[in-house]
Amino acid sequence: MSKRVVRANAFRAAAVAILLLAVPLSGCGEMPDTAPANADARPAAQAKVAEKRPIILATTTSTVDTGLLDALVPAFERESGFQVKTIAAGSGEALAMGRKGAADVLLVHAPAAEEKLMAEGFGARRLAVMHNEFFLVGPPDGPLGAKASSAAEALKKIAGEKAVFVSRGDDSGTHKKEKVLWEAAGVKPEGSWYVEAGQGMGATLTIANEKRGYTLTDSGTFYSMQNVDLAVAVEGDPLLANPYHVIEVKAEGVNAEGARAFADYLVSAAGQKLIAGFEKGGRKLFTPDAGK
Protein backbone atom coordinates (compact mmCIF):
# COMPACT_ATOMS: atom_id res chain seq x y z
CA MET A 1 0.00 0.00 0.00
CA SER A 2 1.18 3.52 -0.72
CA LYS A 3 3.09 5.43 1.96
CA ARG A 4 0.43 8.10 1.61
CA VAL A 5 -2.03 5.83 3.43
CA VAL A 6 -1.96 6.46 7.19
CA ARG A 7 -4.39 6.99 10.04
CA ALA A 8 -6.63 10.04 10.35
CA ASN A 9 -5.59 10.81 13.92
CA ALA A 10 -1.98 11.06 12.84
CA PHE A 11 -2.92 13.60 10.20
CA ARG A 12 -4.93 15.71 12.65
CA ALA A 13 -2.06 15.63 15.16
CA ALA A 14 0.46 16.55 12.51
CA ALA A 15 -1.69 19.42 11.31
CA VAL A 16 -2.03 20.78 14.85
CA ALA A 17 1.75 20.51 15.39
CA ILE A 18 2.42 22.42 12.20
CA LEU A 19 0.01 25.18 13.23
CA LEU A 20 1.58 25.47 16.68
CA LEU A 21 5.05 25.74 15.22
CA ALA A 22 3.80 28.40 12.85
CA VAL A 23 2.53 30.69 15.68
CA PRO A 24 4.96 33.60 16.29
CA LEU A 25 6.72 33.50 19.64
CA SER A 26 5.64 36.50 21.73
CA GLY A 27 6.39 37.56 25.29
CA CYS A 28 9.60 35.50 25.29
CA GLY A 29 12.13 38.29 24.87
CA GLU A 30 13.67 39.51 21.67
CA MET A 31 14.90 36.93 19.25
CA PRO A 32 17.64 37.61 16.73
CA ASP A 33 16.58 37.84 13.12
CA THR A 34 18.07 34.68 11.67
CA ALA A 35 15.99 34.54 8.48
CA PRO A 36 18.15 34.26 5.37
CA ALA A 37 18.40 37.36 3.24
CA ASN A 38 16.60 35.67 0.37
CA ALA A 39 13.73 34.26 2.48
CA ASP A 40 11.15 36.20 0.51
CA ALA A 41 12.51 34.83 -2.72
CA ARG A 42 11.41 31.21 -2.17
CA PRO A 43 9.61 29.71 -5.14
CA ALA A 44 5.96 30.68 -5.42
CA ALA A 45 4.91 27.02 -5.68
CA GLN A 46 6.63 26.18 -2.37
CA ALA A 47 4.91 29.09 -0.64
CA LYS A 48 1.57 28.00 -2.09
CA VAL A 49 1.88 24.47 -0.67
CA ALA A 50 3.02 25.73 2.75
CA GLU A 51 -0.08 27.90 3.11
CA LYS A 52 -2.57 25.10 2.47
CA ARG A 53 -3.86 22.54 4.94
CA PRO A 54 -3.47 18.91 3.84
CA ILE A 55 -6.63 17.19 2.63
CA ILE A 56 -7.71 14.00 4.40
CA LEU A 57 -9.28 11.62 1.90
CA ALA A 58 -11.18 8.55 3.17
CA THR A 59 -11.76 6.04 0.40
CA THR A 60 -12.58 2.44 -0.41
CA THR A 61 -9.68 0.01 -0.63
CA SER A 62 -10.32 -0.62 -4.33
CA THR A 63 -9.09 2.83 -5.36
CA VAL A 64 -5.82 2.07 -3.56
CA ASP A 65 -5.49 -1.63 -4.48
CA THR A 66 -5.91 -0.87 -8.19
CA GLY A 67 -3.26 1.86 -8.09
CA LEU A 68 -5.69 4.50 -9.35
CA LEU A 69 -4.91 6.92 -6.52
CA ASP A 70 -1.19 6.60 -7.24
CA ALA A 71 -1.98 8.24 -10.57
CA LEU A 72 -4.74 10.67 -9.53
CA VAL A 73 -3.35 12.12 -6.31
CA PRO A 74 0.09 13.26 -7.54
CA ALA A 75 -1.51 14.88 -10.60
CA PHE A 76 -3.97 16.75 -8.37
CA GLU A 77 -1.24 17.81 -5.94
CA ARG A 78 0.90 19.24 -8.74
CA GLU A 79 -2.00 21.21 -10.14
CA SER A 80 -3.56 22.46 -6.90
CA GLY A 81 -0.73 22.88 -4.40
CA PHE A 82 -2.66 20.79 -1.84
CA GLN A 83 -1.28 17.64 -0.25
CA VAL A 84 -3.58 14.61 0.10
CA LYS A 85 -3.37 12.17 3.00
CA THR A 86 -5.25 8.97 2.12
CA ILE A 87 -7.01 6.58 4.48
CA ALA A 88 -8.05 3.34 2.77
CA ALA A 89 -10.98 1.57 4.41
CA GLY A 90 -14.27 0.02 3.43
CA SER A 91 -16.86 2.51 2.20
CA GLY A 92 -18.85 2.01 5.41
CA GLU A 93 -15.88 3.07 7.53
CA ALA A 94 -15.10 5.97 5.19
CA LEU A 95 -18.69 7.21 5.47
CA ALA A 96 -18.51 6.90 9.27
CA MET A 97 -15.39 9.08 9.21
CA GLY A 98 -17.35 11.64 7.22
CA ARG A 99 -20.07 11.71 9.86
CA LYS A 100 -17.45 12.35 12.54
CA GLY A 101 -15.67 15.04 10.55
CA ALA A 102 -12.52 12.87 10.63
CA ALA A 103 -12.08 13.22 6.85
CA ASP A 104 -12.50 16.14 4.49
CA VAL A 105 -13.58 14.29 1.38
CA LEU A 106 -14.77 10.76 0.56
CA LEU A 107 -14.41 8.62 -2.56
CA VAL A 108 -16.77 5.68 -2.07
CA HIS A 109 -19.04 3.16 -3.80
CA ALA A 110 -22.06 2.50 -1.58
CA PRO A 111 -24.91 4.51 -3.21
CA ALA A 112 -27.69 3.82 -0.69
CA ALA A 113 -25.45 4.63 2.29
CA GLU A 114 -24.11 7.72 0.49
CA GLU A 115 -27.63 9.02 -0.12
CA LYS A 116 -28.44 8.49 3.57
CA LEU A 117 -25.34 10.46 4.60
CA MET A 118 -26.37 13.32 2.30
CA ALA A 119 -29.95 13.29 3.58
CA GLU A 120 -28.63 13.53 7.15
CA GLY A 121 -26.71 16.69 6.23
CA PHE A 122 -23.14 15.38 6.46
CA GLY A 123 -22.27 16.05 2.83
CA ALA A 124 -21.95 19.36 1.00
CA ARG A 125 -21.77 17.91 -2.54
CA ARG A 126 -21.93 14.40 -4.01
CA LEU A 127 -20.72 13.97 -7.58
CA ALA A 128 -20.55 10.96 -9.90
CA VAL A 129 -16.91 10.16 -10.72
CA MET A 130 -16.69 6.75 -12.42
CA HIS A 131 -17.97 3.20 -12.47
CA ASN A 132 -16.97 -0.38 -13.14
CA GLU A 133 -18.82 -3.52 -12.08
CA PHE A 134 -18.75 -6.27 -9.53
CA PHE A 135 -17.78 -9.83 -10.44
CA LEU A 136 -18.60 -13.06 -8.70
CA VAL A 137 -15.36 -15.02 -8.99
CA GLY A 138 -14.23 -18.48 -7.98
CA PRO A 139 -12.10 -21.50 -8.87
CA PRO A 140 -12.25 -22.39 -12.59
CA ASP A 141 -13.14 -25.99 -11.68
CA GLY A 142 -15.63 -25.05 -8.94
CA PRO A 143 -19.23 -26.31 -8.58
CA LEU A 144 -20.69 -23.44 -10.62
CA GLY A 145 -19.06 -24.77 -13.75
CA ALA A 146 -19.96 -22.48 -16.66
CA LYS A 147 -20.90 -18.87 -16.02
CA ALA A 148 -24.29 -18.38 -14.37
CA SER A 149 -26.85 -16.04 -15.92
CA SER A 150 -27.35 -14.02 -12.73
CA ALA A 151 -25.70 -13.41 -9.38
CA ALA A 152 -28.78 -14.61 -7.50
CA GLU A 153 -28.80 -17.90 -9.41
CA ALA A 154 -25.10 -18.41 -8.74
CA LEU A 155 -25.40 -17.67 -5.01
CA LYS A 156 -28.29 -20.13 -4.66
CA LYS A 157 -26.11 -22.84 -6.19
CA ILE A 158 -23.10 -21.93 -4.02
CA ALA A 159 -25.27 -22.14 -0.87
CA GLY A 160 -26.87 -25.40 -2.05
CA GLU A 161 -23.47 -26.97 -2.69
CA LYS A 162 -22.05 -25.44 0.50
CA ALA A 163 -19.11 -24.28 -1.61
CA VAL A 164 -16.73 -21.94 0.22
CA PHE A 165 -17.72 -18.27 -0.07
CA VAL A 166 -15.39 -15.62 1.35
CA SER A 167 -17.13 -12.39 2.34
CA ARG A 168 -15.42 -9.06 2.98
CA GLY A 169 -17.49 -8.91 6.17
CA ASP A 170 -16.38 -5.33 6.79
CA ASP A 171 -19.38 -3.12 5.93
CA SER A 172 -17.57 -1.95 2.80
CA GLY A 173 -19.37 -1.03 -0.40
CA THR A 174 -18.60 -4.53 -1.69
CA HIS A 175 -19.97 -6.13 1.48
CA LYS A 176 -23.12 -4.01 1.26
CA LYS A 177 -23.61 -5.13 -2.34
CA GLU A 178 -23.04 -8.76 -1.36
CA LYS A 179 -25.84 -8.56 1.22
CA VAL A 180 -28.19 -7.16 -1.44
CA LEU A 181 -27.33 -10.10 -3.70
CA TRP A 182 -27.93 -12.73 -1.00
CA GLU A 183 -31.30 -11.11 -0.30
CA ALA A 184 -32.14 -11.26 -4.02
CA ALA A 185 -31.20 -14.95 -3.96
CA GLY A 186 -33.48 -15.56 -0.96
CA VAL A 187 -30.59 -17.08 0.98
CA LYS A 188 -29.28 -16.32 4.46
CA PRO A 189 -25.60 -17.30 4.26
CA GLU A 190 -24.42 -19.16 7.36
CA GLY A 191 -22.38 -22.18 8.23
CA SER A 192 -18.76 -23.24 7.97
CA TRP A 193 -18.77 -22.71 4.18
CA TYR A 194 -19.41 -18.96 4.65
CA VAL A 195 -16.19 -17.24 5.72
CA GLU A 196 -16.05 -13.58 6.82
CA ALA A 197 -12.58 -12.18 6.17
CA GLY A 198 -13.02 -8.73 7.73
CA GLN A 199 -10.36 -7.43 5.33
CA GLY A 200 -9.91 -5.35 2.19
CA MET A 201 -10.57 -6.55 -1.32
CA GLY A 202 -7.05 -7.61 -2.22
CA ALA A 203 -6.68 -9.68 0.95
CA THR A 204 -10.15 -11.21 0.51
CA LEU A 205 -9.31 -12.31 -3.03
CA THR A 206 -6.12 -13.92 -1.73
CA ILE A 207 -8.06 -15.82 0.95
CA ALA A 208 -10.67 -16.99 -1.59
CA ASN A 209 -7.85 -18.18 -3.82
CA GLU A 210 -6.20 -20.10 -0.97
CA LYS A 211 -9.48 -21.73 0.06
CA ARG A 212 -10.52 -22.38 -3.56
CA GLY A 213 -13.71 -20.51 -2.83
CA TYR A 214 -15.92 -17.82 -4.30
CA THR A 215 -16.12 -14.13 -3.49
CA LEU A 216 -17.58 -10.87 -4.75
CA THR A 217 -15.05 -8.35 -6.04
CA ASP A 218 -14.96 -5.09 -7.92
CA SER A 219 -13.62 -5.69 -11.42
CA GLY A 220 -10.81 -3.15 -11.02
CA THR A 221 -9.18 -4.91 -8.07
CA PHE A 222 -9.70 -8.32 -9.68
CA TYR A 223 -7.91 -7.28 -12.85
CA SER A 224 -5.11 -5.76 -10.76
CA MET A 225 -4.41 -9.01 -8.90
CA GLN A 226 -1.64 -11.04 -10.50
CA ASN A 227 -1.34 -13.83 -7.93
CA VAL A 228 -4.81 -15.43 -7.87
CA ASP A 229 -6.12 -18.32 -9.94
CA LEU A 230 -9.79 -17.35 -9.92
CA ALA A 231 -12.19 -17.05 -12.84
CA VAL A 232 -15.17 -14.76 -13.39
CA ALA A 233 -18.34 -16.77 -12.71
CA VAL A 234 -20.89 -13.95 -13.09
CA GLU A 235 -20.64 -10.57 -14.81
CA GLY A 236 -22.99 -8.23 -16.63
CA ASP A 237 -25.91 -8.63 -14.21
CA PRO A 238 -27.52 -5.17 -13.73
CA LEU A 239 -27.38 -5.77 -9.97
CA LEU A 240 -23.57 -5.83 -10.26
CA ALA A 241 -23.25 -2.16 -11.30
CA ASN A 242 -20.59 -0.38 -9.22
CA PRO A 243 -20.70 3.45 -9.30
CA TYR A 244 -18.23 5.63 -7.38
CA HIS A 245 -19.01 9.12 -6.03
CA VAL A 246 -16.95 11.84 -4.40
CA ILE A 247 -18.51 13.54 -1.35
CA GLU A 248 -17.33 16.77 0.24
CA VAL A 249 -17.82 16.37 3.98
CA LYS A 250 -19.93 18.97 5.74
CA ALA A 251 -18.73 19.24 9.35
CA GLU A 252 -17.06 21.74 11.65
CA GLY A 253 -13.32 22.03 11.16
CA VAL A 254 -13.03 20.17 7.87
CA ASN A 255 -10.87 21.47 5.03
CA ALA A 256 -13.79 22.52 2.85
CA GLU A 257 -11.59 24.40 0.39
CA GLY A 258 -9.36 21.40 -0.16
CA ALA A 259 -12.31 18.99 -0.40
CA ARG A 260 -13.96 21.12 -3.08
CA ALA A 261 -10.70 21.40 -5.02
CA PHE A 262 -10.22 17.62 -4.95
CA ALA A 263 -13.83 16.91 -5.99
CA ASP A 264 -13.59 19.48 -8.78
CA TYR A 265 -10.40 17.84 -10.06
CA LEU A 266 -11.93 14.35 -10.15
CA VAL A 267 -14.78 15.54 -12.37
CA SER A 268 -12.66 17.91 -14.46
CA ALA A 269 -11.59 17.11 -18.01
CA ALA A 270 -8.06 16.34 -16.75
CA GLY A 271 -9.23 14.03 -13.95
CA GLN A 272 -11.73 12.20 -16.14
CA LYS A 273 -9.13 11.73 -18.89
CA LEU A 274 -6.72 10.19 -16.39
CA ILE A 275 -9.45 7.83 -15.11
CA ALA A 276 -10.45 6.85 -18.65
CA GLY A 277 -6.86 6.03 -19.56
CA PHE A 278 -5.98 4.10 -16.39
CA GLU A 279 -5.13 0.51 -17.32
CA LYS A 280 -3.67 -2.65 -15.85
CA GLY A 281 -2.60 -5.48 -18.12
CA GLY A 282 -4.15 -3.76 -21.10
CA ARG A 283 -7.58 -3.47 -19.40
CA LYS A 284 -9.30 -0.21 -18.54
CA LEU A 285 -10.34 -0.49 -14.91
CA PHE A 286 -12.85 2.38 -14.64
CA THR A 287 -15.22 4.31 -16.88
CA PRO A 288 -15.52 8.07 -16.17
CA ASP A 289 -18.99 9.31 -15.18
CA ALA A 290 -18.71 13.07 -14.53
CA GLY A 291 -21.95 14.89 -15.29
CA LYS A 292 -24.10 11.74 -15.13
Account of the 3D structure:
This protein is of the alpha/beta class and 292 residues long. The protein has two domains: 8-132 and 243-288, Periplasmic binding protein-like II (D-Maltodextrin-Binding Protein, domain 2, 3-Layer(aba) Sandwich), CATH 3.40.190.10; 133-241, Periplasmic binding protein-like II (D-Maltodextrin-Binding Protein, domain 2, 3-Layer(aba) Sandwich), CATH 3.40.190.10. The chain is built from twelve helices and twelve strands. The protein has helices at 8-22, 44-50, 61-65, 68-80, 91-100, 111-119, 151-161, 173-185, 201-211, 219-224, 256-267, 269-277, and strands spanning 55-60, 84-89, 105-108, 123-138, 165-167, 194-196, 215-218, 231-234, 241-249, 279-280, 283-284, 287-288. The strands form three sheets. Strands 1, 2, 3, 4, 7, 8, 9 and 12 form an eight-stranded mixed sheet that branches. Strands 5-6 form a two-stranded parallel ribbon. Helix 7 crosses helix 8 (173-185). The radius of gyration is 22 Å and the shape is globular.
Describe the SSE topology.
Blueprint: H1 8-22, H2 44-50, E1 55-60, H3 61-65, H4 68-80, E2 84-89, H5 91-100, E3 105-108, H6 111-119, E4 123-138, H7 151-161, E5 165-167, H8 173-185, E6 194-196, H9 201-211, E7 215-218, H10 219-224, E8 231-234, E9 241-249, H11 256-267, H12 269-277, E10 279-280, E11 283-284, E12 287-288
Parallel strand pairs: 1-2, 1-3, 5-6
Antiparallel strand pairs: 3-9, 4-7, 4-8, 4-9, 4-12, 10-11
